[in-house]
Structure formats: C-alpha cells, structure tokens
Protein: Cytochrome P450
Organism: Guyanagaster necrorhizus
Amino acid sequence: HLVYKRWSRISITNIRGPQPHSILYGNFPEMLEGQAGDIDFKWQEEFGDVVRIKAPFGEDRLLLSDPKALQYIYHASGYGFTKTSGRLAVSQTIFGPGLVGVDGDIHRRQRRVMMPGFGTPEIKAFVPIFFTHAGKMAAKWRDIISGNGGLSCTVDVPSWTSRATLDIIGQAAFDYDFGALDDTDNILTKIVSNIVFDTFGLPTNKAILSLSLMDFLPFWLSRFITKSLPISRLSHAHKLNRLTGTVSKQLVKEKYDALIDGKSNKDIMSLLVKANASQNPDTRLSEQELLAQMITIIMAGHETTSNSLSWALLELAKHPEIQSKLRDEIRAKERLVLSRGGSLTATDFDNMPYLTAVVKESLRFHPVSYNVFRVSEKDDVLPLLKPIITKDGKVMYEVPIPKGLQIISSIAAYNRNKDIFGEDSSVFNPDRWLCDNVKSSVSIGMYANLFTFSGGGRACIGWRFAVLELSAFVVELLNNFEFSLTDKGDSIRREACFVMTPTLEGQREKGTQMPLNIRIASREDM
Ligand code: HEM
C-alpha cells in the first residue's frame, strides 16, 4: 500500500533541474559545500524560479524563488506548509518548545502571546540601548587603535559584533547583563557565539544523510534521537540549554514578581510575562514554553543580527564611495540633532534616506537566513508569477505538488530576482532604493518587500529590532571609523551554516572570521 501510495502520488519529475552527482546524496553536497546562495543563483539563472533538485535517496525537492508561489506558501496557505520533521526536532533541541520549535495551533497560540513584546513603539524604545552598546564597542576599538600608537588597526569584526549584539539582546529582551563585550572568556558567550558554526558548519555527507533520514521519521522519534543520543554536533546546543535553564527560570520569576508588585519593566520578557498573565488558561503559555522563549530569542536574534552587521560593514569596506556618502548624511543629521540638544532616535533614521537604502541593500544582498524549509501538508497547486517550461516543452502556469513534498525556499535567490530588483540585482547598489527601481506586483516580505525576514504568520518576529539595531550600529561605527579590506578581503566566504556566516577560504575549520581594517574617521567639521 505504501509503495503504491508513493508511486501513484503527484509527480514533479517533469520540472527541470540539475543532474545529481550522486544517487545517495543527490544535489545536496553541491548545495552545502559552496558558498551560501551561490548554487541557488546558478540554478535560478539556468532553470528559473522553480527548480527540481534531488535530495538524498533520490527524493525530489523543489527549490523555489517564484514570488507568487512563495506568497502562497507563507501567506495564503496558513499552516498548509509546515516545518519538516527533522528540522523541527533539531529546532526543539536547540530552542526547546519555543516559537521556532513548534507548528500549527501551538505556534499560533505562542505567537499571539509574544507579539506585544515586538510592536513598533516597544522596539523603537530600545534604540538608546543599541547606541549605548555600539558606542561601547567603538570605544574599545579606539582603545586598541591608540594602544597601537597609530590611527588604524585590523579587527575581526564578527568576534566584536557577536558580543555587542549578545549584550543588546540580554538588556533589551531580558534586562540581563551578559557582560560579553567586557568578558571574552564568559562560557555562555563563547557557546552562544559559536553555536551556529559548531552545529551546522562544514556538514559532512554523514550529517547530510542523517538530517535527511530524520525527515522520514515520525517527529517523536526524530526528537528522541536529537535529544537523547550523543550527537557531537548537538553537544553545544545541549550545553546551552543546561546553562540557560537556571538563568531563565530566575529571570521569569523576577518578571512575575515585578508584575505582581505593579512594576512595569519594558524588556521583551517582561512584556511577554505580562501578556501571558492576561491570557485565559487555555491560551496561556506553560512555564516550559515561557522559559523556551528566552533561548529562542537569544538564538534567533543574536547571530542573525551580528552577522548581518558584519556583512554590511564588509560591503562598506568594499565601497569607499558609498561609505563616505553615508558618513556625510550621518554627520549632517548629527549636526542637526546636536543643535536641538538631543540624540539620534528611531524617527531620525526615517529621515535618513541613504542610511535606509544601505540597510535595505545589505539585507537584500546578504540575507543571513538564505534558505527556509517547508513540507506540504496536502496535495496542492502552487501558483506562479512567471510560467515555467517543463522538460518536455510544456508551459506551466501553476505547479501541482504532492502531499509531503519538501520545499526549499530560496531567500537568497528571491532577493536577486531581476524582475523585482533590476538587471543589476547581483551588484551591491543602495541607489536602487532611491530611484524607485524596486518593483513587484506581489507583496511578500515584512520589510521593503524583501524576503530576508520571510513572510506571513511565521515571519521574523524581531525584524524591527534587527533593522533598528543595524541602523544604530552603522551610524555609530561610520561616524567613528573608515573601513577597508585587508589582504584577506577576497578570501571572505559566505559560509552556508544555516545562518550565513563569514569564514576565510583556506581556514574554514577555524570558524567565523572577517578581518577588516579600521581607521579613525577624519572630521573636517570639528
Ligand atoms: C537580520 C536579522 C534577522 C534575520 C535575517 C532574521 C530572519 C528570520 C527568518 C527568515 C525567519 C523565519 C524562519 C522560518 O520560517 O523558518 C525568522 C524567524 C524568527 N526570528 Fe528572526 N531574523 C533576524 C533577527 C531576529 C531578531 C533580532 C529576533 C528577536 C529579537 C528574531 C526572532 C525570530 C523568531 C522568534 C522567529 C520565529 C518566528 C516564528 O516562527 O513565528 N529574529 N527570522
């Protein structure tokens, strides 16, 4: 019966795609060994926005970047496309039963309780925290430079941005001091800062096979394997869970006590505890769910923003002309703000068109979450914006798909769609946002119609946090420093480790690295 069901289901074999190099591994080694997004761009160029690829064991998968199909999956279908069993199990092992590790009704219930902590006014109120930590990092860089006795030095950017953004998450989300910028040896800092690379970096064929196999297993079995078996790649995640367990319990208790005493703290966890207390018992988060949100917010919000900032600084280092134009805008705004005796706020960012263009372009060009994975819950039909031509020359305006089909949504490829972002979509060019050159008939993303933060009911809950944090850091750092490439500039890789992470060619096993030269920025206006 199972074999009959398998062979009689809707087939997508007629859709064009690359030949696999191996029957056992399919096209996966190519996808995982190259730099993040590179193979997506190659196949998008060759086959269009709908590509059939082979997964391990000869399974068909779709690699999608068609805007209308993505809109259908992420917006229109509700929970019609869920996370795959293996990924959900890994997510639960890392995040616990928090927002990232659950699906369907449980996810809807959790998300409703979490939303009040991520509203526009709540996140805008964190901008002073973003500036404080950006300023602290800049001060430490100045100390290194003056210790060098000159005007410049080389810094490994992600090792700094990672610690600064961890301190920010601690303060803004939990009113907790990780002390990461001051204490490089803090064990929690070390684990959190390397967890993405340690868990997902440099995947072996064995790891590819294991994860693919887990997608065939029922969730409870995948969960048992990831939670209970000694899988070395997951050891950091287990350690992190243990370490944060006590801290999060203590923090949640403090928030509850403060709420009972009528004190209203503004950190995200306090807002979450408050929103939870006002729910009826059926919709309220359990203690375990509440605790899991802490690690969820740290994990989902830390390396994503830290790496996005590193990529933005790399582009600025590569493009001195963009850097100096942006610095002029920042300084003009700074003069205005100082003359009214205040400091920069989120509203000022709205009036800085070039800063906004640079942030948008950086998030488009380097979407750190470059692929997201879903599986269809029923036989379905994907609508397409652009028709495709099948292997036998037929034109298809929509794609019938079987229940259980795994879909890899390519955020990286969508963000380079030439029809939306222009013929020069593979070039870093913030000006595209200023000349009204970005056009799309399909509304898909949370910010600037990019797919960087995904879309719909499972879109990034922290996108406003990320955009404002990124803006504050770019303003503070560019105001203080000029960035340029070192002799290793051409060796920087976009490592595909689930979150796009910078490494150096020839030193990949050393983990995250991005050396850049910094120099005190001259000030003619002072
Ligand atoms: C540039 C930085 C960021 C990027 C590119 C990013 C990207 C994403 C993407 C693509 C998703 C959807 C993943 C999926 O559907 O499988 C997501 C989900 C999520 N993000 Fe972010 N994120 C960023 C920053 C943040 C921050 C700062 C926070 C929290 C403070 C955060 C919290 C979350 C959470 C909790 C989810 C799960 C949402 C859900 O399943 O309902 N993210 N993010």
Summary: Residues 2-520 form a domain with the Cytochrome p450 fold (CATH 1.10.630.10). The radius of gyration is 23 Å. The chain has one domain: 2-520.
